[in-house]
Predict the structure.
Amino acid sequence: MDAALQRKQSFLYDRDFAFRLSKRLISAKMKNQIVVLRRYEKSTGSDVSRQIRMMGICLHKTDSCVTPSELMGFEGQGAKAYFEGLAEVVEEEFRFQGRSRRPPLDEFNSMISLGYSILMNEIYAVLEIKGLNPYFGFLHRDKEKHPTLASDLMEEWRAVIVDSTVMSLINGHEIQKEDFIINRDEPGCFLTRNGLKIFLNKLNNKLQTKTKYLNYVDYPVTFRQGIVLQTEALVKAITAEDDSLYRPIVIR
């Protein structure tokens, strides 16, 4: 635990630092979502131009936002269009109706919900190791028993790590409908033991994949290493009280 760092982290919660950082995180998230959607539009021959256009409008609007609620409103609209687009480019038997959680109602949502939980735990552990408080977020506001800073840092990685992994599993025919169980007594769709093994292996391989997405290092790093480096960059930004020192990853 780094008490001095966490005091400064808490101090910046209601400062301009928090809002400027939040805008940068949401912008990166939406840009990455658009790239992922365009990739699958091209590989599947689908037409999701309407959804991409709506996401572009929301992305542009975030530049002029002046309040956190306004920013989250455009983020929500962009996310809705994004998942509508993914539903169009995913294999037909895995088509879904938007985002569902607690419980997930279909195979796609079952996998991304699990993936997001795993990603959050990965980030949570790194935050603690680096001396930050996972519950003192900047973008996500205080919620009881919710690690808001981990949620903040997840934003730039969601589409890049989890969504692309799920799409690869489905469209690459690496996972089948029989790898899931639909709860007959109450709503919910969950992975079988075999499905869980397939999913976890794929996600772990993704996290160990090397990439050059971080523009401040001149060598490839794994996604796990990237999360560590980005957390260290956030520590520097908080210490200097300069949000511009944190640059979320934006894929191409």
